[in-house]
Write a structure and sequence with these properties.
The protein is 33% helix and 22% strand. It is of the alpha/beta class.
């Protein structure tokens, strides 16, 4: 069966995100969370900010992920146009509707974006926000977006340098599982790992079978799982 495309647009407010260190690849993987019958596509990837003062580490990640970079130099002493241009570009895609964007994702903590978020949701589009954890209690943000992700969850961790590539793939895969649909059969994690890395085959790893891998990952604290009398094994909680 041919999967239906699910188009995702990602907009980064570079200056607003400059104070946070994060791994953009992990953020992008988390934005792919969707039901299995869809084929996720990043139809739009745009980043906005004054490139003369852009944070070098962030700019490198944006370039490596082939984002369209829109330079927004300051007007006068303070004001730049990043938030305005970003919002207008997002609304223009809604008007043109080609391709139709199913999910809009904004990386910012600026409450000004609640205006465009509410407008997009009014027209039936899903809108996500990646912001700082300290923003989670701001009612205006919580009520204007369908899903909030926190940039601190994607910060570089010292232990990430020593864990195996399979651990990292598994972490990215389970972060891709919709927590509202838990508990879920462990096969979902296997499917997510293959979606992120089509070359992944558990029988070609040291684990040999997926349940051995699941038990190892649970032992490392990445997930919690349960075994049912029917023999089904389910993931009950994502801990990363």
């Amino acid at each position: 069966m041919i999967k239906q495309n699910f188009n995702i647009a990602v907009y980064i407010d570079m200056e607003n995100m400059a104070s946070s260190d994060f791994i953009l690849e992990d953020v992008m993987n988390s934005l792919l969370s969707v039901d299995d019958e869809y084929n996720c596509i990043f139809a739009i990837k745009s980043a906005y900010g004054n490139q003369a003062i852009a944070k070098k580490s962030l700019k490198k990640q944006v370039v490596d992920h082939n984002f369209n970079i829109i330079d927004t130099p300051k007007i006068g002493a303070e004001k730049n146009r990043a938030d305005l241009l970003l919002s207008l570009d997002a609304f223009e895609t809604l008007y043109l509707d080609n391709p139709k964007i199913n999910r809009y994702c904004f990386m910012t903590s600026d409450s000004d974006f609640t205006v465009i978020a509410d407008k997009l949701r009014k027209f039936g589009r899903e809108v996500w926000l990646v912001c700082k954890r300290s923003d989670k209690d701001r009612a205006i943000l919580a009520k204007s977006f369908d899903n909030l992700l926190f940039v601190e969850d994607f910060s570089p961790q010292p232990e990430m340098k020593v864990i195996s590539s399979i651990d990292r793939l598994f972490i990215n895969a389970v972060r891709n599982i919709n927590s509202s649909k838990l508990p879920s059969n462990v096969s979902v994690a296997n499917d997510r790992m293959k979606a992120l890395d089509p070359s992944f085959r558990v029988n070609k790893t040291e684990y040999r079978n997926f349940m051995t891998l699941i038990k190892e990952m649970e032992g490392k604290g990445y997930i919690k799982s349960e075994s049912l009398p029917t023999g089904e094994n389910r993931i009950t909680e994502i801990c990363v």
